Amino acid sequence: MTATTAEKSGGEGAFGLVRWVRGQMQQFLAFVSLIVIVVFFSLANPNFLTPSNVTGILVASVTIGLLALGTTAVIISGGIDLSIGTAMILSGVMTGVFLVNWNLPLWVGVLGGVLFGAFVGLVNGLVVAYLGIPPFIATLAMMLVTIGASLVISGTQPIRFTKVDGFSDISNASLIPGARLPISVVLLAVMALIAGFVLAKTRLGRYSYAIGSNEEATRLSGVDVRRWKVAIYTFSGFFVGLAGVLAAARLNSAQPTGGQGLELEAIAAVVIGGTSLAGGRGTITGTVIGILIMSVLTNGLRIMSIPQEWQSIAVGAVILVAVYIDIVRKRT
Questions:
Q1: DSSP secondary structure, 131-142, as one string
Q2: Could you tell me the pTM of the whole model?
Q3: Local structure of 160: helix, strand or coil
Q4: Residue 325 in contact with residue 29, Cβ under 8 Å?
Q5: How does pLDDT run across 182-196, given as a tens digit for each residue?
Q6: Cβ proximity of 196 and 284 under 8 Å
Q7: What is the Cα–Cα distance from 116 to 96, expressed in whole angstroms?
Q8: Alpha carbon distance 172, 161 (integer Å)
Q9: Burial of 96 by CB count in 10 Å (0-12 exposed, 13-18 middle, 19+ buried)?
């Protein structure tokens, strides 16, 4: 190797290191922000770090957390999914149909609800990848479809699981008798590990980053971009379906209304954690930090009796700061 080549290689290595450090900056800032928020609310209210309140924060993180984990892959690939909140509601309604209306066995109905969420993701992926409709428009249309479908299928009435033995235990029971931590929180942690493994160690993860970084170059390298886009949206839909089942189990009923706005909270958690809306960059670790920031902030403001309207302003301000940091990071 000549001196010139060595210098060039060293320069590229140094530049790569600098770029990696910059890429980790927002995730680091998010983690520091989480610590600062926790310390602030702990000093402001001694009840904040009590076991019951901490458990409440973790339980409140489950629904948004699962939605955020799934949509992380979509955003990394350069896409967006505005239907995850209402698709979650529809997955819960379909779980009610399977278990209450059709009297299917518990495990069949639960699996059916989860897979129905994956089916919605599959349809989104097909529309985006093969029809060429922009993700924003495609998933916005799906959001409207799932809102209507939930109301039509349920007859606009909640579907109650009072006669389905063991269904509420899926979310509310504890793995260890007497423990405060419900199964839903443990499932969120397990799914975070699975999502992190998929993004870091599998082709779906590698192609998510590649498509988000440069879709055309990925296509020219021989990757079937359309097929992998479908896989990415389906992967996200699996998490949506699981969130729908757990939300229905926590309430012991499937509510056909609601869901609007959850997609924005999930996307906010992903962006706060350092995932770029432009695609090509992000981690599950960052998303988990973003999830906790959203839950801790909301809980802390509520425990301090801050009015709901000011809570919304505070959360919106945090989102703006996170997006601005992402913009600045891309400029450097």
A1: S---HHHHHHHH
A2: 0.90
A3: strand
A4: yes
A5: 999 999 999 999 999
A6: yes
A7: 12
A8: 14
A9: buried
